[in-house]
Amino acid sequence: MIRFFNTLSRKLEPFRPLDPGKVKLYTCGPTVYDYAHIGNFRAYIFEDLLKRFLKFMDYEVIQVMNITDVDDKTIKGAQSEGLELEDYTKKYIQAFFEDLESLNIDKADYYPRATEHILDMAKMITGLMNKGFAYRQDGSIYFRISKFPNYGRLSGMDLAKLKPGQRTEADEYEKESVQDFALWKTKKEGEPFWETDIGAGRPGWHIECSVMSSKYLGQTFDIHCGGVDNIFPHHENEIAQSEAYSGKKFVNYWLHCRHLIVDGEKMSKSKGNQYTLRELLEKKHDPAALRLLLLATHYRKMLNFTFAGLRQAEASLQRIRDFIYELENRKFKKEENKDIPKLVEKTRKKFIEGLSNDLNISVSLTALFEMIRRVNINLAKEKLGPKNAEELLSLIYSFDKVLALLPEKEKTSLSVDIEEKIKAREKARAEKNYELADKIRQELLESGVVLEDTKDGVRWKIKKSK
RNA sequence: GGCGCGGUACCCAAGUGGCUAAGGGAGAGGUCUGCAAAACCUCGAUUCGUCGGUUCGAAUCCGACCCGCGCCUCCA
Question: What ipTM does this complex have?
């Protein structure tokens, strides 16, 4: 049984999708005004883990991730660079998809863009006005929170105690209540706008998710994810809009991940600790190691990113890779170890149990590493057969459908030049000319190739980064 | 001020009433090796922020305190 912690109830709940065997998943996507930073990717990787695990458990998953390509920040960014909005966001949308690929994040089925759903938004807003949930004020349209009694349920906010924040904008003075939020912002000089039935203007932020989720997943769907900062007001507002409009329950399970901090401090541009994936890749960090680092801490726990932590993740990952390398490259005797099938089953069971319990990845990784240790002991004693190795490999690769840490095509080949050098070194060693052999080994190391002399002969690896 | 989360070894991190407090990294010792490196093995917290309480029994439950962090109108 799979259980998730539902923000709505603040409890672990058994997961039961609307349609058995099928999961409809909506994940809040990026606002494309800049390159995404590692904090953003913590959320996307958590969502990826969720999705991959559901697929691993034989669910069919339909995932929608929105792309917010019109809002205050994208508009401001486009203005400051003197670009059309679309030309400005294009670059970051493309970068976003490249980053997803670097981190081996499974593609969503739909990536709807806000700017491509303006008419759908106008339609929903009209519906909300007809039902009395929205009103027009100076051309803009606001959601009337007082009409929606469940407002605040997701976040546990008590409306009466809500203090208006400091960022309340001056141009929103005219609302009936400070807490009412904009569905539609009337056309403003110098800003992009759309001509629609409800007038010329642009959408408020929250409406896009209500519109696009229902369009691709239906008015009620299974899971909605995002970072904790989205709980209030964004997801609260989505619920209000969607349920007011449809009269149906919007989402059954709300899953939110906590934030990532850097060196114990909140990430912020002014502190200079806001890393993008690109920056880390430029510093030659392994994207798979970053993926492991972001994956390995439970999603509802705060994650403190440090470079020491990243190096530890690199080392952990190397342990898995070396294990696979052994299984794939050793010459096994014919004799099979009868205990291995039992170990495989036990490991598979624990791996699944871990993730089934609100994505407790630590338990699952423990299962994997425990197995690696046990098998290594047998490996050292040469108590492993070819079938054993095959079975173990197939288990690890099945886990990797969830973890996605092992790129499939990692068959790097060496240049002829380097192969020549390895051969030359072998010759030198055979002649006991160790001085020359060591010199060649050092040269290869400097070009990133590590040589290891084993019983079965020399073997090489590409040096891990750093 | 309101609501909420967390403090487990040198670092990361499971465990949330009772078998030896997982696992990874780092470190130390060993195997292997021409020597290395890599890999592998072994070792490692009488103790879970502090102080009280409940209990036959607490890292786990309760209370107080200390420390760190998040949200409170467009930040994942």
Answer: 0.93
